[in-house]
Amino acid sequence: MLAIICYALLAGSFDHYGILSQVSIPLALTSFAGTVLSLLLAFRTSQSYERWWEARVVWGAIVNDSRTLVRQVKLFMPQTAEGLAVAKEFARRQGVWCFALGESLRKLDHSDKVTSYFAKSGTDSGNKPNMIINHHSDALAAATEQFKLDPNKQVQIDATLARLCDSMGKCERIKNTVFPRAYSVLIHFLIYVLMTLLPFGLEDQSKLVEISLTIIIPALFIAIEQTAILMQDPFENRPTDTPMTQLAKTIENTLMEIVGEPPVNQIEPPVSYFIM
Amino acid sequence: MLAIICYALLAGSFDHYGILSQVSIPLALTSFAGTVLSLLLAFRTSQSYERWWEARVVWGAIVNDSRTLVRQVKLFMPQTAEGLAVAKEFARRQGVWCFALGESLRKLDHSDKVTSYFAKSGTDSGNKPNMIINHHSDALAAATEQFKLDPNKQVQIDATLARLCDSMGKCERIKNTVFPRAYSVLIHFLIYVLMTLLPFGLEDQSKLVEISLTIIIPALFIAIEQTAILMQDPFENRPTDTPMTQLAKTIENTLMEIVGEPPVNQIEPPVSYFIM
Amino acid sequence: MLAIICYALLAGSFDHYGILSQVSIPLALTSFAGTVLSLLLAFRTSQSYERWWEARVVWGAIVNDSRTLVRQVKLFMPQTAEGLAVAKEFARRQGVWCFALGESLRKLDHSDKVTSYFAKSGTDSGNKPNMIINHHSDALAAATEQFKLDPNKQVQIDATLARLCDSMGKCERIKNTVFPRAYSVLIHFLIYVLMTLLPFGLEDQSKLVEISLTIIIPALFIAIEQTAILMQDPFENRPTDTPMTQLAKTIENTLMEIVGEPPVNQIEPPVSYFIM
Amino acid sequence: MLAIICYALLAGSFDHYGILSQVSIPLALTSFAGTVLSLLLAFRTSQSYERWWEARVVWGAIVNDSRTLVRQVKLFMPQTAEGLAVAKEFARRQGVWCFALGESLRKLDHSDKVTSYFAKSGTDSGNKPNMIINHHSDALAAATEQFKLDPNKQVQIDATLARLCDSMGKCERIKNTVFPRAYSVLIHFLIYVLMTLLPFGLEDQSKLVEISLTIIIPALFIAIEQTAILMQDPFENRPTDTPMTQLAKTIENTLMEIVGEPPVNQIEPPVSYFIM
Amino acid sequence: MLAIICYALLAGSFDHYGILSQVSIPLALTSFAGTVLSLLLAFRTSQSYERWWEARVVWGAIVNDSRTLVRQVKLFMPQTAEGLAVAKEFARRQGVWCFALGESLRKLDHSDKVTSYFAKSGTDSGNKPNMIINHHSDALAAATEQFKLDPNKQVQIDATLARLCDSMGKCERIKNTVFPRAYSVLIHFLIYVLMTLLPFGLEDQSKLVEISLTIIIPALFIAIEQTAILMQDPFENRPTDTPMTQLAKTIENTLMEIVGEPPVNQIEPPVSYFIM
């Protein structure tokens, strides 16, 4: 950002006082370079938004499948106290999964809820959310034996687990796939080209106007690109992030309601985003 | 809106009478800023439309799955009076669900139909539509025990419930996800930049023409952006909304027809949208 | 259309003989307004095409699911004369469904085939295609009892019925969702603005050329928008429609072939569209 | 193409020698008409590419589902010589299906492989690929009775047949849906308008340059549109086609490998496309 | 690239010293040709990115389905040492599959892991990944007989195999489908046209500026197109590739964790891409 302003000032003064002051480049050419840049930025903006939106859609699916998982477990287990106990255990574990996924995507230290869960379970893993799905799977195997569960029902619950596993993998994909750097390089290069051409096209203007314009216009492009950069990585602990902690809290409360337990989290109205 | 007209007048008069009257900025530059703005607006318009259309698609899926749910319950229950009674109960409950979902998305007070349903059922929840799906699930568990339902059939009805739960979650996602404010800010900023540049590019025109143009052109951009804002939040109790009440009424009538009951709602031809 | 030509002539003559004849608006500004309009039209064109194509895709799915339904019924029923009779009945009913859906989407009077089907069945409904799916469902329930059908197979046929129900709901959604009028209004307004600005930018041309241009250019935009309007509602009994009658005939013949019956419709080569 | 060059020459000479030689139309207007045309062409190009790509995706799905079908039949039949014989029969029939589908989409005469299959089976149909799926279905019914196949497995194989039926229907949809002619007409009209306007905007150029430009620029647009036309119909026996014969051969070899038979086709490296 | 610079120099000098030095082509026309080129490049860029992203999505699905496969095998086999042995065998085989797929897509020699697997199994195939899926299928058939597996469970595992088979087919489709060459040809042709027109529009500039511009601007377009070419084929052993080896290693470690084995690969932080 700062580098760009310096460059703009430099280019502008060069144009005036340097040996290049007789040179003038038609504005049509400059505005044509701007059109190319605009189209590249439009592509960039739209792809970044797609990533951000996909992240949100995936977490929407996590909300739905979490509810469905617990509802199915409750529905398919025998309608007894033991069956309900299994459902409650699934609900608690699924709540932990949501927090664990959010935290590992943001590469944060795990919260107390998650670490105490793993301490209790006596297992550990580099990929904690995946380990929790394995625990779900083991618990399902145990419940199948205990209650002689019909295979159809076991398969249906397993299918929901597979969908959760899919959502987890999609988050990892978005997190780990770098947006092709070549496009950033091209866009930056075009902004510099534009900044170099611009002063030569404004020859006949007053110096003040010329300098303001050579600063404002590239700044606009930079702003658009920065916004795209913020949007494209939605799991980086930034205000534009997918609100994973918020969602995890809401999910956990709903899961508790499904199995007839009181809510465990207090939901605050979302504020962070608007501050931006 | 008003602020913008004032700003335009101010910028225009400054240009004429102020110390800046010798300054002129080439129109090519202005129209180039306009191209950037156009591309951003095209992106904005298209994303808002996608949200609006997705909302409509989700409610279309709710129509279909509601019908399918009741049809399946009727088909899979024993073809007796008791089986039909269960199907009728599902149909009624599903009708309430549609209204409850629409009202909670619009953050309206719940209608009599919904409140009386919850009064009768003796339960309550912050997320009423989700609670009704739990009731469906409980009723399915009860019917499975009562009629010794084949697990295959139970699983199939459960899959339809899972799809309804998905649609509900998608509506919540659209409702709760704020469109990235950064883009609105950028667009507003670009409109102001354009308004400031425009008068300097029209120097040699008559004052009247200049002022009209500096008002009309930004007004056009504002109008396009406002339309996008209206479209992007389709559950806000506005004429451009997804017609959820209308759809809920139609769904309820069709459900009643499937279980052989007379229609309960009178459908009026949709008028609201055209008034806009 | 005519209104627009009149307006163009009016605006053109005003420009020449009226008090505004000294006024001239730079062409760059006009062509910039045209860029905004082009982007809006590009959005409009692309969304209308999407609707048209989606309608075609949905009817493609109806073709496939109709075939699959009858094939499944034939496959899952016992391989006896009675089983085949059920499949034939399904084939006939599904044929009627295709015609009923096409006709009710176009809001036409129902054809003899459909009315005689409902006369025979002794039922009636405001939503005839949905009623026929209910009949399918009832026939499936009856066949299940008669042949002690395995629940797995019943569920599979039911899933195909659910897909047909989905396709029906998608057609209804496309039919009943008005394309946001706000965009039409904006586009029309922009065309008028363009027509008003255009003559002032062509000041130095001969009168004849000026008038032809102020007519031809807006006419082009109108033509593009009209095409979009034709495409966006693909069930309106127009030559650009989804060819539903043609498709229904083809479907019915194929269904008859599957159950070993002779074709019932004569397929004519599609001609209507090319006339346009 | 030729007509257009003639028209360009005519328009150009008219401009020079005719009575219109005093008329000059600003180039800004011409280039603005060109922008509209570009956007329409961009839309056209992108939609044609989508159709071409969808055709390729559908054939990709056919590859996958063919493999899956034979693998499933082999897996679900008893692991005996008789079970394997059924799988081999399915593999051979599925190979024929791929060829039959490709040939009927291209409206070619059927190859020996297909005609000899139908001669042997003693059946015939106007829609040969659909008839082969019916044969699959009949063979599945027979095998179910012979081996007392579990309904679950039968249903799973049937689901793969339904997906193949879907892919077939999608190919038919792409084949039979004409791209809306209105857009071609608009594009051609715009090219003519552009060619008429262009010479008047180049008044002050040498005659040679003017004529070359009035030929080259419309020729470019025509070339872009022609490419779109080639892409939009991917089953027309042209070098840009989906390589269906090549794919059918590969599929058949893989199917043979799955059931433990030697390959039946020699695959040549694809060359046709690069010749273009 | 070099050819283009030479051409630019040639065209530039021709313009100055040749007989064409009186000819001048308006810059508006040139920038209009540039607009067409920009739109084609925008289309090209966006389609290439789609292919690259689809490749990444498919490998994301492979990650998920690999985990799901092993988890399901472990869940559905009896919870005994023998059951676990089968799951371990599946985990190992699935690990090999990931490497085999990556290597055959890149047309590399197979690694030791893969060749030793095939040496042990005593089979071979031109399409190694497909052969491994067949081995999965055979092992599933054997386990079904050994443990009297419920058909429901067998079918569910088979469905996961079918999804893996789909992902494999999608990779092959992306690998084998050449991006339509016609568009590359058009884009190159347009770049040459632009380079030829450009010097004639810059007549009144200093020679140095003119030559730099005629080199820089086409170079930009070439750079954008080259980036698109790199992105469109994501399995070519280039730094912009889908990181298949990295992914295969991660998958194998996770699979080992699921069946309770120690990790077999050391994961290095991804570096290659950033070098670009």
Automatic annotation (TrEMBL), chains A, B, C, D, E:
Keywords: Cell membrane, Ion transport, Membrane, Transmembrane, Transmembrane helix, Transport
Species of provenance: Mucilaginibacter galii
Cited InterPro entries: YneE/VCCN1/2-like (IPR044669)
Superkingdom of origin: Bacteria
MF (Gene Ontology): chloride channel activity
Primary localization class, coarse: membrane
Record-given protein name: Bestrophin
Localization annotation: Cell membrane
Membrane topology type: Multi-pass membrane protein
